[in-house]
Amino acid sequence: MSVYDAIRIRRDVRAEYTGEVVADDVLRRILDAAHRAPSVGNSQPWDFVVVRDKGVLATFAGHVAEQRQVFADTLPPDRAATFDPIKIDGIVESGTGIVVTYDHARGGRHVLGRQTVADTGVFSAVLAIQNLWLAAVAEGVGVGWVSFYDERFLSDLVAVPAGVRPIAWLCVGSVAEFQTAPDLERFGWRAGRPLDDAVHWEQF
Ligand SMILES: Cc1cc2nc3c(=O)[nH]c(=O)nc-3n(C[C@H](O)[C@H](O)[C@H](O)COP(=O)(O)O)c2cc1C
């Protein structure tokens, strides 16, 4: 599969997991792709916690359901009605969660390139996630990013050390198919915008 095909086919997967747990060798290749991401000062500030314990998956799914409700409660009635049928995770169905963490202390005090833009560390960890996501597509594996969580809750759940941030819970599992359009578009929550609206020449 070409990189362009993987980029085109990739979706945030919530409902299409088959329940078949991803094989360890496939998971290893996907994590290896993540670990090859570029990073500021070559700091590689990420770690990956692989979660397969059914009890932990269920506990996290319960927490996410609570947070989903907190968000739903903030919505005006028309948006709440649109949001209602939208699935926001496949934590249990995917069978595997990967918690991606960010360690700002990785690389020591003199991270080359991070002096003026502190966020370059987090940017680096997010690039690892994108590598993982695209590699998963090439393996026929679905990934769904879940961000409806309290950071402290997730840190406690998977024993993330103090000073290290969990920046994503990724649901990773075999899929029957990839949808051709984003769920949020299909369910009328928000459509994408044309490329030409995002590209600017010379000045913003
Ligand atoms: C930082 C980040 C957080 C996200 N959090 C969630 C989430 O909590 N639940 C969810 O269903 N999708 C989540 N998504 C997926 C987006 O909704 C999805 O990428 C977007 O709607 C475009 O769809 P596509 O990825 O299928 O192209 C997240 C994506 C990103 C990049």
Automatic annotation (TrEMBL):
<keyword id="KW-0285">Flavoprotein</keyword>
<feature type="domain" description="Nitroreductase">
    <location>
        <begin position="7"/>
        <end position="173"/>
    </location>
</feature>
<dbReference type="InterPro" id="IPR012825">
    <property type="entry name" value="BluB"/>
</dbReference>
<dbReference type="Pfam" id="PF00881">
    <property type="entry name" value="Nitroreductase"/>
</dbReference>
<dbReference type="InterPro" id="IPR000415">
    <property type="entry name" value="Nitroreductase-like"/>
</dbReference>
<dbReference type="InterPro" id="IPR050627">
    <property type="entry name" value="Nitroreductase/BluB"/>
</dbReference>
<keyword id="KW-0288">FMN</keyword>
<dbReference type="GO" id="GO:0102919">
    <property type="term" value="F:5,6-dimethylbenzimidazole synthase activity"/>
</dbReference>
<protein>
    <submittedName>
        <fullName>5,6-dimethylbenzimidazole synthase</fullName>
        <ecNumber>1.13.11.79</ecNumber>
    </submittedName>
</protein>
<keyword id="KW-0560">Oxidoreductase</keyword>
<dbReference type="InterPro" id="IPR029479">
    <property type="entry name" value="Nitroreductase"/>
</dbReference>
